[in-house]
Write a structure and sequence with these properties.
21% helix; four-stranded mixed beta sheet; 2 helices; alpha+beta; 2,3-Dihydroxybiphenyl 1,2-Dioxygenase, domain 1; 107 residues
Length: 107
């Protein structure tokens, strides 16, 4: 299965280094475990505060950026792939009270 994580610690380091997400045993980082034959979610969505500089640093680091929507009615979006080929959506909402319901898919 192409989206199954083979090296979890290496992928955790990538998320820490590139997206500044840090695991905390008291919460703040969600880790899910799936069986190899289970259907996996297609996209993981992270809500962030400042998208433009992050996209710049990811591009400089050679991260594959699928699409970048500078502005739409829901905020700013970018879609990237992590090293294991998982699609990741980065969302900077216009309003902190916005929910994740009905987010757009990349074009």
């Amino acid at each position: 299965m192409e989206n199954f994580i083979q090296r979890p610690e290496a992928l955790n380091r990538w998320y820490e280094e590139k997206l500044h997400l840090h695991r905390d045993l008291n919460g703040g980082f969600m880790e899910e475990h799936f069986q190899e034959n289970e259907d996996l979610p297609e996209t993981t969505i992270f809500r962030i505060q400042n998208l433009a500089p992050l996209i710049g640093s990811l591009a400089e680091a050679g991260v594959r950026i699928i699409d970048y929507v500078d502005e739409n009615e829901r905020g700013k979006f970018a879609w990237i792939y992590d090293p294991d080929g998982h699609k990741v959506a980065l969302w900077q909402p216009w309003d902190e009270s916005q929910s994740l319901v009905d987010l757009p898919e990349p074009e």
